[in-house]
């Protein structure tokens, strides 16, 4: 290692902080359906996911190389640019976590990197062909492919299983769901942990610590794996709630189909070096599983909010990254200002989140959406079923025997 400056150390620490937020932001990808169907207890689920995320980090470096060697021109990037990119990614992760939206940590990172790079070196420093082929196209195709596969797998499982709903059948699907959840966690480590490896490797190249074109050093792989595993263990309970029961209601066989489809898509993309959003893939597979069961319902209002967040992620992180880079470009004091802003903003978001705590004790409750205006109006005017007696209803007309009028009754009206 040739040199390791203070700014480079700050970038590495910030990158690991992003990796930590990536872990708790994306815990839902692997374990939300497993928790919502009762296949695993919440704490056991996140512990298992954390361990497998760490293992997955050592299986490949293809995605890391896509970020460190392919997305931007590594020869013209300063460590401050990468720091600014991480600021945009971290803040977007925290904001979407606060509101419980499963947005893409991957696209937040790449958006921040693109914005900061453009602000520093211009649009020519971004490799547009890599951005389109390995980022944007997979972002659109992956959730559609995973959703379709999950829907077909769900229909197939109900078709071959018929009406078998015994305890043995449920236990079998729960066991399969646990296995598939483990596979998703492993796949998440091979894909998302590598993104931080790639960004740290890019920073080391920019800072002159390693030569251009190098693969991630072993200590980078280990530290990135540990950071994402710790974040996963903490558990992003707000997003787990949205993904597990806020999007659709799943039975064990649906959860098994969704997670198997997602794991297959993620592992395939990692092998090809696609910097895929695991959030997009798992969300698509969960919706596909919801549509695959007869009578299944997808909460499209939640799905729409998620889609809006997906569209905004890359440009929003890019704008923050570009703004942060403009400030860091002013010198060391500018970098210090950005660092203080990042810490203060993160602390403020955390404090706001404490107003309504979501953890392993209440992650599967309180997810029903409020009734719409039409539903409420119909319920208000619907009469009780015929033949029922409403309790508490008393007569308001006195019987003839009990009636004692104070004045003589008026003569009856003439009948025509």
UniProtKB/TrEMBL annotation:
Keywords: Membrane, Phosphate transport, Transmembrane, Transmembrane helix, Transport. GO terms for cellular component: membrane. InterPro entries: Phos_transporter (IPR001204). It is a multi-pass membrane protein. GO terms for biological process: phosphate ion transmembrane transport. One of its GO terms (molecular function) is phosphate transmembrane transporter activity. The chain crosses the membrane at residues 81-101, 108-126, 132-153, 219-240, 303-324, 330-350. It is found in: Membrane. Pfam families: PHO4. Belongs to the inorganic phosphate transporter (PiT) (TC 2.A.20) family. This is Phosphate transporter. It comes from Streptomyces filipinensis. The lineage of its organism: Bacteria, Bacillati, Actinomycetota, Actinomycetes, Kitasatosporales.
């Amino acid at each position: 290692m040739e040199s390791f400056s203070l700014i480079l150390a700050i970038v590495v620490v910030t990158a690991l902080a992003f990796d930590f937020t990536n872990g708790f932001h994306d815990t839902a990808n692997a374990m939300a359906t497993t928790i919502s169907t009762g296949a695993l207890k919440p704490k056991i689920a996140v512990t298992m996911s954390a361990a497998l995320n760490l293992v997955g980090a050592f299986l490949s470096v293809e995605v890391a190389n896509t970020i460190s060697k392919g997305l931007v021109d590594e020869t013209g990037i300063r460590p401050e640019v990468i720091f600014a990119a991480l600021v945009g990614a971290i803040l977007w992760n925290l904001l979407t976590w606060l509101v419980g939206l499963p947005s893409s940590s991957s696209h937040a990172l790449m958006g921040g990197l693109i914005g900061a790079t453009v602000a520093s070196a211009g649009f020519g420093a971004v490799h547009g062909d890599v951005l389109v082929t390995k980022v944007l196209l997979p972002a659109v195709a992956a959730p559609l492919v995973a959703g379709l596969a999950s829907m077909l797998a769900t229909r197939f499982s109900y078709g071959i299983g018929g009406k078998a709903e015994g305890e043995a059948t449920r236990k079998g699907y729960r066991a399969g769901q646990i296995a598939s959840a483990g596979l998703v966690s492993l796949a998440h480590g091979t894909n998302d942990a590598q993104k931080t490896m790639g960004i740290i490797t890019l920073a080391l190249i920019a800072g002159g610590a390693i030569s251009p074109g190098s693969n991630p050093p072993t200590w980078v792989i280990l530290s990135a794996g540990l950071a994402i595993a710790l974040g996963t263990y903490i558990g992003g309970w707000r997003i787990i709630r949205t993904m597990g029961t806020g999007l659709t209601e799943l039975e064990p066989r649906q959860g098994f189909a969704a997670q198997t489809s997602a794991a297959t898509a993620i592992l395939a993309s990692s092998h090809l070096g696609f910097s895929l959003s695991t959030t997009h893939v798992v969300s698509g597979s969960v919706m596909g599983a919801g549509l695959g069961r007869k009578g299944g319902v997808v909460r499209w209002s939640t799905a729409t909010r998620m889609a809006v967040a997906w569209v905004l992620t890359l440009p929003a992180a890019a704008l923050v990254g570009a703004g942060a880079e403009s400030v860091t470009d002013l010198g060391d004091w500018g970098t210090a200002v950005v660092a203080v802003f990042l810490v203060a903003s993160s602390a403020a978001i955390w404090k706001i989140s404490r107003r309504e705590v979501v953890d392993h004790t209440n992650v599967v409750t309180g997810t029903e959406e409020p009734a719409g205006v039409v539903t409420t109006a119909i319920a208000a005017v619907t009469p009780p079923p015929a033949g029922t007696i409403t309790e508490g209803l008393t007569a308001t007309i006195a019987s003839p025997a009990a009636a004692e009028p104070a004045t003589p009754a008026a003569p009856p009206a003439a009948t025509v």
